[in-house]
């Protein structure tokens, strides 16, 4: 069964033992020079990226439009809040909103927007982790992702970061990205605004 947990499982393991944890993600959102980033995670999912960013010091607004995913996130956040210690401190930097980011973003005047929509799988590869496969079964694909990117690009004051599998096809978007950050399995396309 799919569960969103910040006090056990892969996310906690990454927090405790992940050397250089979230390094490429933190580079992509520009935390190297400013730890106090205000970030909107427009595609919250299981909240893993948001938690990683909050663990590095950022304040993160998470937006999720699937009722099921939103409820799972709410439960995970509640559980982690009552856990105390470092985990609760991290969670206090995360603010969850229900709804479609396309409608919500224009009301937030965000600095940085992170987008990680469900990748449109071409081949049935084994690369998609089982948790994400379960998320896909719940939310389907996100066919409106180009529209979300457009809205993010209009509204972000600093940058838009798009997370994709490394071998994902180039985003078919009018604007080329400013730079890419490449990892072993993940690629970040960064669109600078300033
Ligand atoms: C691939 S998952 C994100 C995983 C997330 N980065 C993590 O670390 O757990 C994509 C999620 O974004 C949500 N989503 C996609 N488009 C959205 C939109 N326009 N507004 C809000 N949520 C959206 C989907 O419902 C899904 O839960």
Structure description:
A hairpin with a 3-residue loop joins strand 6 and strand 7. The chain has 194 residues and is α/β, with parallel strands linked by helices. The protein has a single domain, classed as Vaccinia Virus protein VP39 (Rossmann fold), CATH 3.40.50.150. It has a 7-stranded mixed β-sheet with strand order 3-2-1-4-5-7-6, sandwiched between helices. It is built from 8 helices and 7 strands, in the order ααβαβααβαβααβββ. 36% of the residues lie in helices and 19% in strands. The longest helix has 15 residues. The structure holds S-adenosylmethionine. S-adenosylmethionine binds next to helix 3, strand 2, helix 6 and helix 7.
List keywords for this structure.
194 residues; alpha/beta; Rossmann fold; seven-stranded mixed β-sheet; 7 strands; 36% helix; binds S-adenosylmethionine
Largest sheet: 7 strands, mixed
Strand order of the largest sheet: 3-2-1-4-5-7-6
Overall pLDDT score: 88
Number of domains: 1
Question: Which CATH-level-2 architecture?
Answer: 3-Layer(aba) Sandwich
The radius of gyration computed from the alpha-carbon positions, rounded to a whole number of angstroms, is 16 Å
The named CATH superfamily: Vaccinia Virus protein VP39
Secondary structural class: alpha/beta
* pLDDT < 50 runs, ≥5 residues: none
Amount of helix: 25-40%
Count of helix runs: 8
In sequence order, what are the helices and strands, one letter per element?
Answer: HHEHEHHEHEHHEEE
CATH class: Alpha Beta
Number of strands: 7
First-to-last CA distance: 43 Å
The molecules bound to the chains, other than polymers, are: S-adenosylmethionine
Oligomer: single chain
| Topology-level CATH name | Rossmann fold
């Amino acid at each position: 069964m799919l569960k969103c947990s910040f006090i056990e499982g892969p996310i906690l393991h990454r927090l405790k033992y992940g050397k250089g944890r979230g390094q490429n993600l933190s580079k992509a959102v520009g935390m190297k020079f400013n730890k106090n980033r205000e970030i909107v995670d427009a595609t919250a999912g299981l909240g893993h990226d948001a938690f990683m960013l909050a663990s590095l010091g950022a304040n993160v607004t998470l937006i999720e439009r699937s009722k099921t995913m939103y409820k799972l996130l709410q439960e995970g956040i509640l559980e982690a809040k009552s856990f105390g210690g470092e985990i609760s401190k991290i969670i206090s930097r995360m603010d969850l909103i229900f709804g479609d980011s396309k409608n919500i973003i224009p009301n937030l005047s965000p600095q940085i927007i992170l987008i990680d929509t469900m990748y449109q799988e071409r081949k049935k590869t084994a690369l998609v982790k089982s948790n994400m496969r379960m998320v896909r079964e719940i939310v389907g694909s996100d066919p409106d992702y180009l529209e979300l990117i457009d809205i993010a690009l209009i509204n972000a004051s600093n940058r838009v970061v798009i997370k994709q599998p490394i071998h994902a096809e180039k985003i078919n978007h009018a604007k080329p990205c400013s730079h890419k950050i490449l990892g072993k399995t993940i690629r970040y396309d960064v669109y600078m605004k300033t």
